[in-house]
């Protein structure tokens, strides 16, 4: 519980806010403090699952996701409003919605379950709604309630965060899948019943990563941004958050140079990072990671070899053992080290 508590302190949900939202939440969803705690725990788990997905998505990028939700707080010290900030908000909000929705379908909460509202109705040619559709409405509501309550301000950054939180929740919906089951005489499949199911959270992560790649920059008055002015009474800040771009990630500031160490952003740069080389893996970003992380940042790629012992030449012996030799093998790993020596090319 200690860790979870820390997450909520870090996310600014603690104490004053907690009691405030506990109130409003219990009014329409819950039955008491125990139920509230149930949601809180699941919400915190969901936020952390968002962070885990973020780490996966950015593992071969110059910028890495924060290790835990502790660094998530953009509300206190780190009031950045970059493309990366937008991703963190979207994926956390999506993670919360996803987890709560799953909880619902698993019957973890007394007051919610599958969405059966459309069951029995025709969905399309040859199929009707049936079975257990994931209750995204519920997950969406809880996510909105908890995650959006972190934004207390009314300035542009707050609006941006709220927009991206929402885009995250829309991503969960957008990646849902229709799953069907055949009926009819001897499996003729003349009629199908279908329900909507959450995709793997990885798919939601991939979807949001693509949104990140083409996130929209909102042009703002710099002075207004810096002072974090209240947007009340002004028309400008609400205008850029176009309804037509509701599913897109938006940001306000260009990202700093993530190659270099920046103590004020507590970002350590790419020096010392491991990269992958000569690996026939199809995974996105891996192929060019040494170039992207090291070379293009003015760093060198250093190969470090180490010897490992592995089982090899294994033989099956009748009956029934496997005998192996121990082989020594040299493995190479690659790291970004020190600046390229500029003087050498004389
Ligand atoms: C909600 O789901 C998560 C895993 O997806 C699980 O760890 C947690 O215990 C669930 N919450 C409840 C109240 O069962
Ligand atoms: C660190 O980041 C801040 C904020 O983006 C920027 O103003 C500053 O120039 C950066 N410092 C370095 C050394 O790049």
TrEMBL record:
Chief site of localization: secreted
Cellular location(s): Secreted, Extracellular space, Extracellular matrix
Signal peptide segment: 1-22
PROSITE patterns assigned: WNT1 (PS00246)
Keyword DNA-binding (UniProt): no
Record's keyword terms, sorted: Developmental protein, Disulfide bond, Extracellular matrix, Glycoprotein, Lipoprotein, Secreted, Signal, Wnt signaling pathway
InterPro entries linked to this entry: Wnt, Wnt8, Wnt_C, Wnt_CS
Function of the protein: Ligand for members of the frizzled family of seven transmembrane receptors.
Family: Belongs to the Wnt family.
Protein name: Protein Wnt
Annotated organism of origin: Echinops telfairi
